[in-house]
Amino acid sequence: MAQRLALPASLDVVIVGAGFGGMYQLHRLRGLGLSARIIEAGTGVGGTWYWNRYPGARCDVESMQYSFGFDEALQQQWRWTERFAPQAEILAYANHVADRFDLRRDIAFETRVTSAVWDAGRAVWTVRTDRGDVIEARFCIMATGCLSAARMPDIPGRDAFQGATYHTGHWPHRKVDFSGQRVAVIGTGSSAIQSIPVIAAEAAEVIVFQRTPNFSVPAHNRPIDTEYERHWKDDYAKKRGEARRMRTGILYELNDQSALVQAEAERRATYERRWQTGSTQFMAAFNDLILHPAANETAAEFVRDKIRGIVKDPKTAEALAPKDHPIGTKRICVDTGYYETFNRDNVRLVNLKETPLDHITAAGVVAGGVEYPVDAIVFATGFDAMTGTLTRIDIRGEGGQSLAEAWQDGPVSYLGLMVAGFPNLFTITGPGSPSVLSNMIVSIEQHVDWITDCLGWLRQQGHASIAAEATAQHDWVVHGMEVANRTLYPQAASWYMGANIPGKPRVFMPYIGGVGVYRDRCAEIAAAGYTGFVTGGPAQGAAAAE
Ligand code: NAP
Q: Of the candidates 528, 530, 532, 492, which has an alpha carbon nearest to the alpha carbon of residue 512?
């Protein structure tokens, strides 16, 4: 193991996290001539793609789009092999980016930030780590990811289990061999839906414990052919530009028509065509699927019918068909052979709605009074999404207030970029920004560019600090809620709403107004001299920027 990078006592910027956000931020800050280091808990770069190594893990945004667009040579030279890149290839890409831009020399791996405390008098953050580092930095940029705080459910007896346990979000860095094993999978979100078919192909038996079914559409993954690659690369900059204007930051075919204007047969043909194309673009079949319950129901019923057509056992099919939330209001899953897997002899579904999960024993999982003996349990139970990675760090802003306290009624922020009372602390793809409702790399690039411009502007203006104004933050939060409430999203008990974490306030966390609209708003605010932000006096703290 290489020696860990020594961290200086004083820096312009501490960046937390070496995923795509942290890496690009470091690259941009170097361009600005600021001293910066990334502090990263893992042994390598890649963030979510470093941790989530479960079988079948792959991106649900097409590879040609789920990649950096800031460097023409990079996007021309890197070659993806599959329409939807597997985790290992995305991790290889992250490592390539780190090497290509010589980022590792400024990354302290295997180091976890434990606290960050603001000193208003000196306008510096004091950042502490689990290695005993104490660093003073003028700015903190949290590139901690939206889905990085893995969540183990509090199931009684969990620690009594004598077999192996895994969480999809913290998968071992070696191949886990399930051959000949009986495996329980708890959860049926995206991670489970991707991993179950792969585990089932290897294990002797797979028992899926499902509390709530999710809608899934096929990926139709395939190798990338040269023609498709050229289609993107011949015109990459233009296509990236178009994607940045899309609501999701993903370029795909839109249909500006209501689902309710087409006759039943024609509508089903539209869905069928989308189903055959595969991926999340299914939800763009019509323009009102996330707005109008009746429109949504036509798509939901189409997918339920698909499930009934694929899964041979009618009881299992009905249990797998979601009926408790509008389609798309929980992140739609993208799978390879998920529903087909339930036709295998070695796979069965335990419907926890009928037979609730009681507890875990030394030998297995008990549901509805029946013990299911297994050799391994895979917890595909998700994350404390969007806020978990931030509130797990003891972040203290003005007056010693912690971020966890500031967010006790749900996360508030201005633009998802800054939180009032926490000057000089930026959140990349924080709650209140499009983040998880978008192509994350598109949103990361926009946030990093905005933050970099902001730091350049502060230096030019001679300001030591910048903070979100409470009124601007309030208006943004209200606007975010208004936009969300115009949609069906708040109807689902989703992790977007914090509903998967007991006691977490129910607030719709990402901004749903669309990537294009959001980008314009951020740009206007910057162009107008950072309206809604308040700046503070001349730089006098640690390592003042040149
Ligand atoms: P998730 O969507 O939050 O799913 C967690 C699952 O665990 C749910 O089915 C949940 O059931 C179940 N669960 C939690 N606690 C339980 C308990 N005590 N007993 C029984 N079941 C329990 O988590 P995820 O699948 O890891 O996905 C999270 C997000 O990560 C996705 O929505 C997506 O945005 C992202 N992701 C993306 C990809 C991709 O790009 N392809 C892949 C994986 C993940 P309930 O619904 O009843 O709570």
A: 492
Number of H helices, E strands in the chain: 16, 20
pTM for this entry:
0.97
Q: Ligand 1: distance of its center to the CA of 205 in Å? A: 21
Q: Residue 23 has what pLDDT?
A: 98
Tell me which residues have their CB closer than 6 angstroms to ligand 1.
59-60, 147, 153, 155, 168, 186-192, 194, 209, 211-212, 331, 334, 352, 357, 380-383, 436, 495, 500
Count CB neighbours of 465 within 10 A: 20
Mean pLDDT by 10 residues, the chain (546 residues): 86 98 98 97 98 97 98 98 98 98 98 98 97 98 95 96 98 97 98 98 98 98 96 97 96 95 96 97 97 98 98 98 97 97 98 98 98 98 95 97 97 98 98 96 98 98 97 97 96 94 93 97 98 84 42
pLDDT at position 544:
42
Candidate from 191, 379, 386 with most ligand 1 atoms within 8 A of CB, to mutate: 191
User: Which residues, 6 or more positions from 304, have their beta carbon under 8 angstroms from its beta carbon?
Assistant: 321, 322, 323
- For the chain, what percent of residues have pLDDT higher than 90? 97
Task: Name the residue among 510, 500, 505, 503 with its Cα closest to residue 187.
Answer: 500
Q: Which pLDDT tens digit goes with each residue over 225-269?
A: 999 999 999 999 999 999 999 999 999 999 999 999 999 999 999
- pLDDT computed for residue 546 by the predictor: 37
The amino acid that residue 411 corresponds to is P
Residue of the CA atom closest to atom 4 of ligand 1: 189
CA of 102 to the centre of ligand 1 (A): 35
| C-alpha pair distances (Å), 414 with each of 151, 240, 401, 419, 536 | 27, 26, 17, 6, 18
Instruction: Classify the phi-psi angles of 399: left when phi > 0, otherwise alpha if psi is within -120 to 50, otherwise beta.
Output: left
**370-401 b/e (C-beta count within 10 Å ≥ 16 → b):** eebebbbbbbbbbbbbbbbbbbbbebbbeeee
pLDDT at 2: 62
Q: Which of 190, 195, 338 to mutate to test the pocket of ligand 1 (most atoms within 8 A of CB)?
A: 190
Q: Which of 51, 52, 147, 443 to mutate to test the pocket of ligand 1 (most atoms within 8 A of CB)?
A: 147
Best of 195, 211, 441 to mutate for ligand 1, by most ligand atoms within 8 A of CB? 211
What ligand 1 atom has the least distance to the C-alpha of 381? Answer: 7
Ligand 1 centre from 393 Cα, in Å? 23
Which domains, ranges and CATH numbers included, belong to the chain?
10-149+385-535 (3.50.50.60), 151-214+332-382 (3.50.50.60)
How close is the Cα of 382 to the center of ligand 1, in Å? 4
Instruction: Specify the ligand 1 atom closest to the Cα of 190.
Output: 25
The DSSP secondary structure of 459-523, one letter per residue, reads HHHT-SEEEE-HHHHHHHHHHHHHHHHTSSGGGS--GGGTTTSTT------S--S-HHHHHHHHH
